[in-house]
Amino acid sequence: MLLPMLNRTLFLTLLLVSGSAFAEWRFITEGSLGNKFFIDLATIRKDGNMRTAWMKLELKLDAKTSEIDDWRSARSKIEIDCKKELIRLVATTTFAEPSLLGKVVTNKDFPYEPFTPIAPETINSTFMQIMCR
After folding, report:
1. Which residues contact 122 (CB under 8 A, 6 or more apart)?
2. For residue 2, is it within any domain?
3. What is the domain extent for residue 39?
4. pLDDT level of residue 87 (50, 70, 90 thresholds)
5. Domain count for the chain
6. pLDDT confidence of 6, banded at 50, 70, 90?
7. In this structure, what CATH number is given to the domain that contains residue 30?
8. How confident is the model at residue 3 (pLDDT cuts 50, 70, 90)?
9. Which residues contact 114 (CB under 8 A, 6 or more apart)?
10. Most buried pick, 42, 48, 82, 131, via CB within 10 A?
């Protein structure tokens, strides 16, 4: 009885850990500091004017600063109000290595994060264009 339970636990653990490996990250844009932004199109969820999706940020190796000196990549869930053109961060996990690998540095939810306006011709406006089609 214990062996099937361990196998099930191991399977579920591997499934959760490998989730980012199966994501189909589509390159969106490169920021002014050389950081790269991606979106997993399969995770876009629609609810009226609202959209949620997972995005990935890959820091450029020499973009390391004292504020973010312990992580190299991040996976974040964002929410966009397509009608009002607003965005907010829902959750984020940062990783010590590129490509969402290595030690998890932070894992945070932001249930009360306020929405902020999306400025034209920004990375956030690119996400909005893709998610709000």
Report:
1. none
2. no
3. 24-131
4. very high
5. 1
6. very low
7. 2.40.128.710
8. very low
9. 88
10. 131
Task: Name the DSSP letter for residue 14.
Answer: H
Q: Which two tokens mark 51?
A: 């959209």
Is the model's pLDDT at 1 over the cut of 60?
Answer: no
Contacts of 58 (CB under 8 A, 6+ apart): 35, 36, 37, 38, 72, 73, 98, 99
Two structure tokens written together for 12: 């579920």
Confidence bin at 11 (pLDDT 50/70/90):
very low
Query: Would residue 1 count as lying in a domain?
Result: no
How do 25-30 and 36-40 pair as beta strands? antiparallel
How many residues comprise the chain? 133
Q: Is 119 helix (H, G, I), strand (E, B) or coil?
A: coil
Q: How confident is the model at residue 21 (pLDDT cuts 50, 70, 90)?
A: low
Q: How far apart are CA 102 and CA 100, in angstroms?
A: 7
CA dihedral sign of residues 108, 101, 9, 6: negative
Could you tell me if 58 and 38 are in contact, meaning their C-beta atoms sit under 8 angstroms apart? Answer: yes
Query: Does the pLDDT of residue 17 top 90, yes or no?
Result: no
